[in-house]
Amino acid sequence: MERSASSILVVDDEATIRRTLAICLNGAAYNIREASSPKEALAEAGKHYFEAAFVDLRLGTQSGMDLIPALVEANAGIRIVVITAYATIDSAVEAIKRGAFDYLPKPFTPEQVLLMAKHALHARTEATRIAELAQPGREMDLESGSPAVLKATELARQAAPSAATILIRGETGTGKGVLARAIHAWSPRRDHPFAVVSCPAIPTELLESELFGHIQGSFTGAHRDQVGRVAQAQKGTLFLDEIGDLPLALQAKMLRFIQDHEYERVGEAVTRKADVRVLAATHVDLEAAVRAGRFREDLLYRLNVIEIRLPSLRERPEDIMPLALRMLLRFAAENRRNITGFTSAAQDWLASHDWPGNLRELSNAMERAAILTQGPLVSLDLIGPAVQAAERTPSGIGSDITLDKLEEQHIRRVLATDKPLEVCARILGIDVVTLWRKRKKYGLLETAHGQP
User: By Cβ atoms counted within 10 A, which residue in 173, 242, 307, 431 is the most buried?
Assistant: First the structure.
């Protein structure tokens, strides 16, 4: 299935309106397809991927309003412009609530149509970019003084312009997803989609449909044709996150797709082709999985054309403080806080902590500190104790201690910081009334000042 970077669906029951819109948009080099009814529109959306659509609110005896959420479901990220001769504020609000991007009343001029198309496609591009930045792993900072990270990023830059499959290895939280996005951004495919499939996050029975799509009636709940992530990534990049969790039954189909760029949608015998570059990531030992019979050796060879390994944070101690400061300042700016750095005790703890959750754990700690810090410097009690309480032995998790005792110890440590009760409650993730009751329960009413 070929896919233009600017594919637009026009849905109107009047042939004259459809042709007028199509002529306007074709003149601007957009790829246009037409539909006269909701049924035809959904059939087109099942066969092709559209970035935008112009939908009339009145489609004969049917309503275009009901078509909006169905198109959004069929083509993720589509921007829908509602067109109608019966423009009212109520209908505009309702259309936007259902997923429309904007509203174009009749009669309209060719200039208005082209401007609306431009705005819709620009909004879709911006939304895609923002969504990619907001994905898990955005905390990875490619700036590094670590030789291992520099080696990984340099290899990624060298491999990016090629069509080679790349396997990114590393512990959870090391930023494999962000490096994959960087490779896409450095490649000739940068102006086309970057599609992500998290293999462990999708139920096994739905993963094939998520990847390759399905046709109506192919399984329970398949109410309409659906394109998969492979089709949506046409001319772009498909990122398979945690490929080690891909079920064996799907591994052969993925191997075939990587080799021949061919696939079939679930329930359909038609063979389709897609021009898609594949990147994959894993935190598991795939060679051990091959020996255990859980992963195909031939698929591993196909994925591992170029291997890039991202080191854990404990393997790059020289990066901890620069990363922590950049993250802290970013989160401080987002939360409008005037924070400039860390106390010396906090710096010592940051540098010595093992960071088992890697960049993701560091990012979470910095975001929490940016929200809760009252002054210009982040103190140890806002970053260390919350982690240390979970690791402390023998008086912590894993030792012979009751949950009540563990809770009492943690509350006692937080109250010992002499912060206001409201701040202590936020640190503990409870409200002030609950904190007061727990202080009374554990005999800690004298530990902090103030009453709820």
Answer: 173
**Strands of 277-282's sheet, edge to edge?**
194-198, 237-241, 277-282, 166-169, 306-309
**CATH number assigned to the domain covering 147-311:** 3.40.50.300
Q: What CA–CA distances, in Å, run from 231 to 194, 210, 377?
A: 11, 10, 49
Q: Of 28, 41, 26, 31, whose CA–CA distance to 3 is shortest?
A: 31
Q: Which residues pair with 273 in a beta bridge?
A: 262
- Residue 133 — pLDDT band, cuts 50, 70, 90? very low
Strand, helix or coil for residue 413: helix
Amino acid at the residue 133: L
Are the C-beta atoms of 439 and 433 separated by less than 8 Å?
no
Superfamily holding 7-129: Response regulator (3.40.50.2300)
pLDDT tens profile 310-342: 999 999 999 999 999 988 998 888 888 889 999
Mean pLDDT of all residues in 437-447: 69
Beta bridge mates, 277: 237
CATH 1.10.3720.10, domain 316-441, yes or no: no
In whole angstroms, what is the distance from residue 30 CA to residue 153 CA?
36
Phi-psi region of 137 (alpha: psi -120 to 50; beta: other; left: phi over 0): left
Mean residue pLDDT of the chain comes to 83
CB atoms near residue 98 (< 10 Å): 18
Where, residue-wise, is CATH 1.10.8.60 in the chain? Answer: 316-441
**Exposed, middle or buried, 363 (CB in 10 Å: 0-12/13-18/19+)?**
buried
